[in-house]
Amino acid sequence: MNTPFFANIRIRRDTRANFAAAAFIPGVGEPAYETDSRLQRIGDGVTPMGDLDAAAYVDGATHQFGDDVRARIAANLTDPATPEGAALAEVVAASGGGGALAYDSTTGVYSVPAGSSIIYDASTGAYSSN
Q1: Residue-level pLDDT at 22
Q2: Helical H runs in 22-129?
Q3: 5, 37, 51, 64: which sits with the fewest CB atoms below 10 Å from its CB?
Q4: Helix axes of 83-94 and 67-78: crossing angle, nearest 10 degrees
Q5: Do residues 96 and 116 make contact, with C-beta atoms less than 8 angstroms apart?
Q6: 57, 64 in Cβ contact below 8 A?
Q7: Could you say which DSSP state residue 58 is in?
Q8: What Rg value do the Cα atoms of the chain yield, rounded?
């Protein structure tokens, strides 16, 4: 008869600054968690913690992505060299605006080039087409 085996798994965790100061390199497949940014990264055994891709998380209270993830999404959406940015630039161009979106990280609002039929309604936070 098999006996159940119970174990506690502890994931290495610290602040982003402490991981960077220690030049921490997680082992192959080793998860590590940044307590300040709430990002988890999985090691490859050679890449420093801060250079690894991070897993996205959604805040349990607000149901929003964390600031780091939102900043990366905004950067991709406004850069026509990325697949996301190229797709949006095409939509903006088709709406008569030409060019890519711009993002204001202070207000969290994307601006559409002049001449576009896409408009932003600040009262609802929604974008629509005329």
Answers
A1: 92
A2: 67-78, 83-94
A3: 5
A4: 50
A5: yes
A6: no
A7: B
A8: 20
